[in-house]
Design a protein that fits this description.
The protein is α+β, with helices and mostly antiparallel strands. The chain is built from six helices and eleven strands. α4 crosses α5 (193-204). It binds iron/sulfur cluster (SF4) (2 copies).
Length: 248
């Protein structure tokens, strides 16, 4: 069968370090900020209407989420903290070399493999040039990642679970409390670096916000928006001013 084993030999072209948001663990986000770089925040929300509660997709995503109040309902919110490399990663030098190579984030060590268990690695979906798939070690065989990659992927998924509540609490402390409905749209915040660092410090020192804000969700499609609203979820319909909203 074609592509049962995928070889990969990175050529260091640096293309994957440009034009994207690079998900970070909480610890990596703190280090990123301390290096003087910006961290973006992507907020996603879902409930059991998106996937049945007993489904693998629901269980996987619920582990990455904090369950919180929204209106008269409970929703699950995933906060993704990501290095802002929308132009290019600030750690990429003029020769397309990573200047923090030994300390690069987990996701940079995993790429081009997939972290999500629901996505198979397909070279056509990757920005790597074709020749890099013709040499090197086998990284995926019969859709199973190599043992070395599996260790890193497990570390990434574990961090997603361990960090889930802290990331949502940090967002709440900064009034970033509107999340886009998962698989419908994206809500991307570009918080001030110093403010985000202060929110990290407050969280680390145990300073908690007293006032609890009810989270809201933003949904691009009218029909879906009304269906979610009818379940008691607080839906936001004001024009976004503090985040970028992008319909998927
Ligand atoms: S940290 Fe290094 S490997 Fe990761 S995106 Fe930035 S330059 Fe690339
Ligand atoms: S785009 Fe692919 S080949 Fe180029 S540096 Fe990134 S992982 Fe390596």
């Amino acid at each position: 069968m074609e592509n049962t084993a995928l070889r990969f030999a990175c050529n260091g072209c640096g293309v994957c370090c440009k034009g994207r948001l690079i998900p970070l663990t909480l610890k990596e986000s703190r280090q990123w900020l301390q290096r003087g770089h910006d961290v973006a925040v992507i907020l996603e929300a879902f409930d059991e209407s998106l996937w049945p509660a007993e489904s693998e997709k629901f269980r996987h995503n619920a582990k990455r989420a904090a369950q919180i109040d929204s209106g008269n309902a409970k929703i699950n919110v995933i906060a993704i903290f990501a290095a802002n490399a929308l132009t290019q990663c600030p750690n990429l030098d003029d020769q397309n070399q990573c200047v923090i190579y030994e300390e690069r984030p987990l996701v940079c060590r995993i790429y081009p493999a997939e972290i999500s268990p629901f996505i198979s690695l397909d070279p056509a979906d990757k920005v790597c040039p074709p020749e890099v798939w013709e040499a090197g070690e086998i990284i995926v065989s019969d859709r199973v990642a190599s043992p070395a990659l599996q260790v890193k992927i497990a570390q990434s998924r574990d961090a997603d679970t361990v960090d889930a509540h802290a990331k949502v609490a940090i967002c709440e402390s900064m009034d970033m409390t509107v999340a886009a409905w998962k698989e419908n749209a994206l809500a991307v915040y570009l918080p001030d670096r110093q403010r985000l660092m202060t929110a990290f410090d407050h969280y680390d020192s145990g300073i908690q916000r007293v006032a609890h804000t009810s989270w809201r969700v933003r949904i691009a499609d009218h029909e879906l928006r009304e269906a979610v609203r009818n379940r008691g979820v607080q839906v936001d319909t004001t024009e976004p001013s503090s985040y970028i909203f992008h319909k998927l």
